[in-house]
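Team,

Forwarding the record for the chain on the shared tracking sheet. I've put the sequence and predicted structure together so nobody has to dig through attachments.
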Amino acid sequence: MTLGIGLAVATLMCVTVSVNVAALWVAKQSLNSIADSAALAAANGIDTSQIYTQGFNSRIPLSESQARKKVLTFFTKSQIAGDLSQFKLLSVRVVDDEVSVTIQATAQLPFGYLIFNQSPKVVSQAHAINILSE
């Protein structure tokens, strides 16, 4: 009888951990997808003033302010912040023709109250480079 109860408790603990790990993986994959989309949106933040003054070669210069605007517009139009708990844009960084977007959200774990005192934060980062193809 005691062995049966012990096995049942151990089985439930394994199921709880498995479900939480799967939920964490899904949250990370979702955030990766969102970060990729945001980086692609930011890559449209072209620095037109630099193009007009200096021209460009095979790489198109980006503006950090324009890239940030494009990311915020993407988040607003797609209503991503409403789908994720405590969604936050951590950074939009531009170096020449490359943009990097870092975002964060809190993963909602089905059995999180059994393992963590608080929900774990998931962070994702994506990069995009603007290249002029011939």
